Amino acid sequence: MRILEILSGTTACGATVHTLQIAKELLRRGNELTLMVKPYGWSLEQAERLGIPTFPSRMKRFPFTDYLEAVRFCKQKQIEVILAHMSGANNFAVVVGRIARVPVVLRAHAHTVHPHWFFAHHIIAVSEQTRRYHITHNLVPPKRISTVHGFVDPERLTVPDKGVRQQVRSELGLAPDAFVMAIIGNIIPRKGALYLVQALPPVVAHYPNLRLLLVGVTHPESYGVRVRQEIAKLGLELNVLWLGERRDVPNLLQAIDLYALPTLNDMLPMALLEAMWAGLPVLSTTAGGIPEAVRNGIEGWLVPPKNPEALTQALLEILNNPEERARRAQNAHQRVLESFTVGPQVAKIEAILQQVVAQYNQK
Fold first, then answer.
1. Would you tell me how many other CB atoms lie within 10 Å of the CB of residue 320?
2. 310 and 163 inside one domain
3. Residue 233 CB: number of other CB atoms within 10 A?
4. Which of 77, 150, 248, 263 is positioned for an S-S bond with 268, CB 3.0–4.6 A?
């Protein structure tokens, strides 16, 4: 197929990483693909590093120059289908598709109410819960939306250095016997870091060597201030480390003992799947699409969102049962290996694109 993939995000996040992985895999599978990306930022740099053909565009609505250039590109390259990711790209894609007479498929990474979903020929949701949301809130007909779960690229996560655990721990000043858990991803209100901090005092009373790493960009700044104030109020300054944004997540995963995601709402975060592939047990919540990957009692521990008391009880159980941690960690790795890797998931996306093209050409 001749595919134009459109990405509006310019920084590293689950959606942008997934887009690049999809582009790379679709090219490997023999498709002709060009990635439209903004002419600056991390996404463009990574696409060029991976050898993905790019079409830089600011994707501005006014004046109409960017739309017209994209339409000309579609006609010159005889593009058969457009695949778009993230709101800016989705808006741009549905207009270009209508003018160029090319079918448009949008990938739903988030819960948003927006008219662009109505104009797509098909939508790919990253979790079944996300699919249900768009059917209910955006009135998308069920036959026009499919679920293809998020995924990881094992090649990207492989760490050849067996001594990396000790190296990272030494760098961070973590004792060899410390029990280390981490929230990896942007520190934003929806991810629920505040509730995990509030759950810690009774746990730290029994396990003073417990450490929590907060990894990612804090936004908004006021939320970071609130979490820091709670840490100080509870006397947890020695137990909680703020690492900020890290570019060595595969190494970091080797240095921790538990992945935590006390989220209030999530589709299916890539960071969660990466931690599972790395063989980490998971402490998370029953929110969003999380239970579609993590089964309580099998790959990890799931508790209701916004519930520090439940998080406390789960943490005590986790710390008191090393054998059970190891069992669920192994199950987590196996679960991702069997159901959430890049090759099989992109093959499903490719099949949907082929079906959309075939149906469009029959009209």
1. 11
2. yes
3. 10
4. 150
CB-based contact 39:9 (threshold 8 Å) = no
Pick from 280, 224, 285: nearest CA to 250: 280
Lowest mean pLDDT among 14-18, 74-78, 211-215, 235-239: 14-18
DSSP state of 61: S
Q: Are residues 125 and 237 in the same domain?
A: no
Q: Are 52 and 35 in contact (CB under 8 A)?
A: yes
Distance CA 37, CA 211 (A): 39
CA distances from 231 to 63, 151, 185, 197, 207 (A): 49, 33, 19, 7, 17
Task: Identify the CA nearest to 333 among candidates 183, 163, 158.
Answer: 158
Tokens 């949008």, located at residue? 106
Q: Are residues 42 and 119 in the same domain?
A: yes
Same domain, 357 and 256: no
- Stated pTM of the model: 0.94
Report the number of distinct structural domains present in the chain.
Answer: 2
Q: Would the pLDDT of 363 be above 80?
A: no
Helical packing angle, 322-339 and 308-320, nearest 10°:
100
Domain with 101 in it: 2-151+341-362
